[in-house]
Amino acid sequence: xxxxxxxxxxxxxxxxxxxxxxxxxxxxxxxxxxxxxxxxxxxxxxxxxxxxxxxxxxxx
Length: 60
Fold this sequence. Notes:
Layout: H1 6-11, E1 22-24, E2 29-32, E3 37-42, E4 45-46, E5 54-55
Antiparallel strand pairs: 1-2, 2-3, 3-4, 3-5
């Protein structure tokens, strides 16, 4: 499992809300708390498409 470049993570924002993202290493996702979405990271590449994002559950 390849992780995204830390420098890239510093500049990425949620495409919907333009707010910072939190990297969830365990799930390999970039999480937007404000949009309640989690964007997948595949082979170290963040997939920043709203259509590809997973909605966060109530407990997340």
